[in-house]
């Protein structure tokens, strides 16, 4: 009996082992078959064809607004203020009297000097008559004439001082907030009020001397300010400083505004100067560029792998539900492509676009969305029914 039991146990063990190994073999074959037939769903993306453009170079600078004329009004004479004849913020005309100083002492000096002039004139007139009768010498008459001229000059000097006791506007414009009051004693260094003539405005800015060859009188300057809600204004370069600053090696430029600008003198603006230099670049939306430490890259469609997607709807739904809704409504088929990742050299930037200097050619189609889900050689489903909204293509 023991012999038959051994045979039975051995047979049972053989059958069990055969079943186990057979199960694992069939399982591995099924897995291999499934893996071989498995295909990753294509990633839904948007694309844009790139083209070659000629871009003018731009310089971004900080400028500040200047009025046509601006001055701190001051007196040429010292004295106590007797009258203030303007209001803060008022528009004044050239020659309007702004303040009057106490001129009582000068007027008294004027009267005294006037008497001396009259006396000198009388003496001169009398001696000229006597000269005709040879009662006085020519030398005496000449001395009296010189004395009369000297006294007259003193009178004119005092008269000018009296006139200077009235501080007048040197040009037409708006005054600011007055800094003096009646009774204040002022001198030639005392600021009375700020006077601005904003009939014409300028933008002053500076550039590195390295860019001197790129600028010239007549070029356009675009500028904007947060204070004006980033509205864009234009100015035309009218003057270039003939020398470079020896410390900063910058060159000062001035541009005159071509329109009324709601900005005050002294305010800063962000300005862009279009130079005379130009580059031939491949214009690419900035969102198509992937910036990495190892280099800047883009994903480009391999158009030779184009094929109609059999499951456009299901593929697009793995990316965004909005694409799935569009694909259900559209009768236009979606196409699948393989993508190639390329390293590119980045150049200038303008209006939401980047100029690529190398790595792309005109006619290449770049991916503009979902790049983080892609890999080199991966499949994409092109869905441009809801195209990427980018900035306006930059002007040449």
UniProtKB/TrEMBL annotation:
Location of the CusB-like beta-barrel domain: 203-275
Entries under Pfam families matching the protein: Beta-barrel_RND_2, BSH_RND
Domain of life: Bacteria
Every Multidrug resistance protein MdtA-like barrel-sandwich hybrid domain range: 70-190
Stored InterPro entries: Beta-barrel_RND_2, MdtA-like_BSH, RND_pump_MFP
Coiled coil location: 107-134
Keyword terms of this UniProt record: Coiled coil
Record keyword Coiled coil present: yes
The family this protein is said to belong to: Belongs to the membrane fusion protein (MFP) (TC 8.A.1) family.
Protein name per UniProt: Efflux RND transporter periplasmic adaptor subunit
Organism: Vibrio pomeroyi
